[in-house]
Structures are given as structure tokens and as C-alpha cells.
Amino acid sequence: MPTSIDGHLTGTGKKFAIVAARFNGAIVESLISGAVDALIRNGVRDQDILVVRCPGAWELPLVVRQVIDNGKKKPDAIIALGCVIRGETPHFDFVAGECAKGLAAAQATSGVPVSFGVLTTDTTEQAQARAGLKAGNKGVDAALAAIEMVDLLGRL
Predict the structure, then answer these.
(1) Could you read off the pLDDT of 26-82 as tens digits, one per residue?
(2) Long-range interactions of 95-99: CB distance < 8 A, separation 24+
(3) Confidence of residue 22 (pLDDT cuts 50, 70, 90)
(4) 7, 30, 54, 59: which could form a disulfide with 131 (CB 3.0–4.6 Å)?
(5) Candidates 22, 45, 73, 91; catalytic one
(6) Does the active-site annotation cover 8?
């Protein structure tokens, strides 16, 4: 029988940062609320959660990298939250794609888990549904992934 290593949903004693875009703020605030609630429900103390806001999804990778590089306050994981809604121009493709690439690079080069909670939708209605109305709350999902990754990396 092979050995199996899995991460568990236990955030006790861990520190998390939520880096959130202000653009599409009503949607992102719902994602933040969901993420904070999920962290607290899984043992993370309120004082061990840092919320940092930046202008938009384009800026998320730089701010995430700065949070990682901020020595004393370095979190065990970061939850990146934002919302990019497709419009009539290719702007969506550039912002969403570069945001994802930048967050992946920050995670890969730092070793700090960066959970991707950036909605990329075609419509405002789709975004609202994914921020807690009908399709769950992707902020919760991103927070749970961050908790699990911290525990998994600790087990490895």
C-alpha cells in the first residue's frame, strides 16, 4: 500500500493574509467575508488575519509579493481575491491572464502558498453567483485551499 500525505483543514496557530482588489468592490467584499469566516471556522485567530486592499486584479501579484517579502509579518499563506468581468474589449484577457501568471510566479518563487480566488466571469450576474448568491462563495473555497496547503506543506 503506498504512503499517502494529505493536508488537513486546521489553521490553528497559522497566519494568513488576504490580498483583495477594490475593483468590483461589492463582489470582492463578499469574497473577503467568506474567506475570513472560513479561516475563523477552521481555527485561525482574528488577529492572525491581515487584509490588504489594492486597486485591482492587475496589481494583486505585486502586492502579494510585497506581503511575502515583508519579513516580520510574513504569512503562512496568502489568499488573493478579485473579480474581473469580461467587457467588450480584450482588456479582460490581459488583466485576468497576467494576474494569474503573476500570482503563480509569486507562489512558485517564494514557496508561500497563494490561493487563487480571483473570479473571471463573463457577466456581473455570474460573479455575484460565485460570491455567495447561488454558486457558493469562492472566497471560502480559496481560504480552505490556503489552509489545506499550509498543513500539507508542513507535513511534507
Answers:
(1) 999 999 999 999 999 999 999 999 999 999 999 999 999 999 998 667 899 999 999
(2) 95/56, 95/57, 95/58, 96/57, 96/120, 98/58, 98/61, 99/57, 99/58, 99/60, 99/61
(3) very high
(4) 30
(5) 91
(6) no
Q: Residue 66: inside a domain, yes or no? A: yes
CA 48 to chain centre: 15
Q: Domain count of the chain?
A: 1
Q: Which pLDDT band, with edges at 50, 70 and 90, does 89 fall under?
A: confident
CATH classification of the domain holding 58 = 3.40.50.960
Instruction: Over range 4-10, report the average pLDDT.
Output: 95
Helix/strand/coil percent split, the chain, to 5: 50, 20, 30
Would residue 153 count as lying in a domain? no
47 CB-near residues (< 8 Å, 6+ apart): none
b/e burial code for range 124-150 (CB count within 10 A of at least 16 → b) = eebbbbbbbeeeebbbbbbbbbbbbbb
Domain of residue 72 covers: 16-147
